[in-house]
Design goal:
Length: 189
């Protein structure tokens, strides 16, 4: 009779979350994850063919959670302002995890950048206020607001700033207006 599996995919993903949210991706090793579960690395490799697959499954789980739980909260009538407020709140409430995902350099950085870009466009394309803007203007708004949001979030995560929702709304609306009026001026060019 085969032995019953005691460590499941969910256990492993929970251990990955603990490691990344306390140590960052620098701690993302089979040994560290196994140590969190107080086991050998064998269960990890029984569930995942390699660490790249585990990382991809983890990032997919994280982005689904961000999409469905974090970024769906509404504070204003503006989808871009709400994305920013949610991003800054997430950084403030989960500082190490935020830095691990969005600041530190790691193999999933491009995937997370694409997630942020795609989510922004999904929101603005379904919003009457923004949907008819040109792609150039939407890209300018995304770039400028994203750079500003990352800066604000980094300050919030390090407890150097604690902007209110109203302050965030005011700053982002100013950035949106500047981007609409001057789409050729972005913070990354």
């Amino acid at each position: 009779m085969a032995r019953k599996k005691t460590i499941t995919r969910e256990h492993i993903l929970a251990a990955v979350y603990e490691v990344v949210s306390t140590e960052g991706f620098s701690g993302f090793t089979a040994r560290n994850i196994a140590n969190k579960m107080k086991t050998s690395t064998q269960p990890i490799y029984l569930e995942f063919k390699n660490m790249d697959e585990l990382r991809n499954v983890f990032i997919d789980r994280v982005t689904a959670g961000l999409r469905n739980e974090v970024y769906e909260r509404r504070f204003t009538d503006d989808c871009i302002v709400d994305l920013t407020i949610n991003y800054v709140k997430f950084a403030s409430e989960n500082s190490v995890f935020y830095k691990s995902l969005f600041v530190d350099n790691h193999e999933s950085g491009e995937k997370l950048n694409k997630f942020s870009h795609d989510l922004f466009f999904e929101k603005v394309n379904s919003d009457e206020k923004y949907s008819k803007l040109s792609t150039e203007v939407k890209e300018a708004i995304f770039t400028n607001c994203w750079v500003m949001s990352v800066g604000l979030s980094s300050l919030a995560a390090s407890k150097r700033a604690n902007p209110t929702n109203e302050e965030l709304e005011h700053m982002i609306k100013n950035m949106i207006n500047m981007s609409i009026e001057h789409p050729d001026v972005t913070l990354t060019r």
